[in-house]
Specification:
Distance between the termini: 67 Å
Strand order of the largest sheet: 3-2-1-4-5-7-6
Structural class: alpha/beta
CATH superfamily: Vaccinia Virus protein VP39
CATH architecture: 3-Layer(aba) Sandwich
Largest sheet: 7 strands, mixed
Number of strands: 7
CATH topology: Rossmann fold
Helix content: 25-40%
Order of helices and strands: HHHHEHEHHEEHEHEE
Shape: globular
CATH class: Alpha Beta
Strand content: 15-25%
Number of domains: 1
Length: about 240
C-alpha cells in the first residue's frame, strides 16, 4: 500500500492475520470505519501525530492487534467479571482509543472502558462507540473522561500502550485492579529499568516479545500482578 492510499477491509484483515488474529468481514469493516474516524477527527483534534493511512494501519491498528493473542492466552480459563459474561478491560490513557477500541472490536469476549483525562479524546471514543456498527461492538465499548486514580470500578485486565512508567501505571490504577486481575503494559524495548523500579507489591511476572511487520522496532508486553500488602522484614545485625 502506497503512502496516502485509502485503507481497505482487505489490508486490515491481512495485517491482522499476520499477527495471528482472524477478523470477520464485520470486524475488519468496523476497524476501517474507526481508522477513518480517527483520521477525520485528527484534522481538528490532536488525537495522533500520524496522518498517513498506511502508518495508521501499521503503527496503530496492527500494533494494537498484536496484543490480542497474548491477552486471550492470559485470560483463558479465568472467570470473567464484566457485564453479560465479558471480561472487563480498562485502557488507561487511551488517547484516540488505542488499544482499547481495537481490542473491543477484535474480541467479542471483552467489555472495554477507555479512560483519558482529555475531554476531547473521551468524546471521540464516545463517538466511535455510537457510530461503529452495533453488531461489531454490542455496547461493549464505553469512554470515561477521568483521571485513572479516581476510577472506582474494578477490572479483570488493565492495559496501556506507551502510557507511563510501569510503576506509575500500576500505582495510579491499583485501586481499579480486580481480585486476581492483570496489568498488561504494551511497551517498546523491554523496560529493564522500569521493571527494577516497581514497588514491592507490583510483580512483573512475564514479558512477551513480538514483532509487527513494517514497524521496524522492538515491541513487548509486560504482564504484572498485585502481590498484595507487603510485610516488612526486620533488619538483623
Amino acid at each position: 500500500m502506497t503512502t496516502g492510499q485509502p485503507l481497505s477491509v482487505a489490508s486490515i484483515a491481512a495485517g491482522a492475520e499476520a499477527v495471528g488474529v482472524a477478523l470477520s468481514d464485520l470486524q475488519a469493516e468496523a476497524l476501517l470505519q474507526y481508522a477513518e474516524l480517527l483520521l477525520k477527527w485528527n484534522k481538528v483534534y490532536n488525537l495522533t501525530s500520524l496522518r498517513d493511512p498506511r502508518e495508521v494501519l501499521t503503527l496503530h491498528l496492527i500494533d494494537s492487534l498484536s496484543g490480542v493473542a497474548a491477552l486471550r492466552r492470559a485470560i483463558a480459563g479465568r472467570e470473567p467479571s464484566g457485564p453479560t459474561g465479558c471480561f472487563s478491560v480498562m485502557d488507561v490513557g487511551s488517547g484516540g482509543g488505542l488499544p482499547g477500541v481495537v481490542l473491543a472490536v477484535a474480541c467479542p469476549e471483552l467489555h472495554v472502558t477507555c479512560v483519558d483525562t482529555v475531554a476531547k479524546k473521551a468524546a471521540f471514543i464516545q463517538q466511535v462507540a455510537a457510530q461503529l456498527p452495533r453488531a461489531a461492538l454490542a455496547g461493549r465499548l464505553v469512554a470515561k473522561h477521568a483521571r485513572v486514580e479516581s476510577v472506582q470500578a474494578t477490572f479483570d485486565v488493565i492495559t496501556s500502550r506507551a502510557f507511563a512508567s510501569l510503576s506509575d501505571f500500576a500505582l495510579w490504577s491499583r485501586q481499579a485492579l480486580g481480585e486476581g486481575g492483570l496489568w498488561m503494559a504494551m511497551k517498546g524495548v523491554k523496560p529493564e529499568a522500569e521493571i527494577a523500579a516497581l514497588p514491592p507489591w507490583a510483580e512483573a511476572f512475564h514479558v512477551e516479545h513480538f514483532s509487527v511487520e513494517g514497524l521496524g522496532a522492538q515491541r513487548c508486553i509486560v504482564w504484572m500482578r498485585d502481590r498484595g500488602p507487603q510485610v516488612d522484614v526486620p533488619v538483623t545485625n
